[in-house]
Write a structure and sequence with these properties.
- The chain is an all-alpha fold.
- 60% of the residues lie in helices and 0% in strands.
Length: 100
């Protein structure tokens, strides 16, 4: 089995959290979000805009990982498609991580 870097493992957690949330398993999704926040802290990503709202916080986490690491464009497109399922008020503009 390939040994993946910690940022990649954290990105996988973000994906798992998104899938749980979009499947209406919000308790499990929020538990994963707490784990993601701990992993981000371990990666040295400390100054992210955490608002304690899943749809916003998960995007902050994703874009911080993208901004610091070389995330493949196909992966970014996949996540953007998932984020499009969020409430319009909570969806960030594509590729920049800021609100529209």
């Amino acid at each position: 089995m390939v040994n993946r870097p910690e940022w990649y493992k954290t990105l996988r957690l973000v994906h798992r959290g998104l899938i749980k949330y979009l499947s209406n398993k919000t308790v499990a999704a929020n538990d994963l979000l707490l784990e993601i926040k701990e992993k981000l802290n371990e990666l040295g990503i400390k100054n992210i805009g955490i608002e304690n709202k899943f749809e916003i916080d998960i995007q902050y986490a994703f874009w911080e990982i993208c901004n610091r690491y070389n995330v493949d464009s196909d992966i970014i497109v996949l996540f953007e498609k998932l984020f499009e399922n969020f409430n319009d008020n909570n969806y960030f503009c594509k590729r920049c991580g800021s609100k529209e």
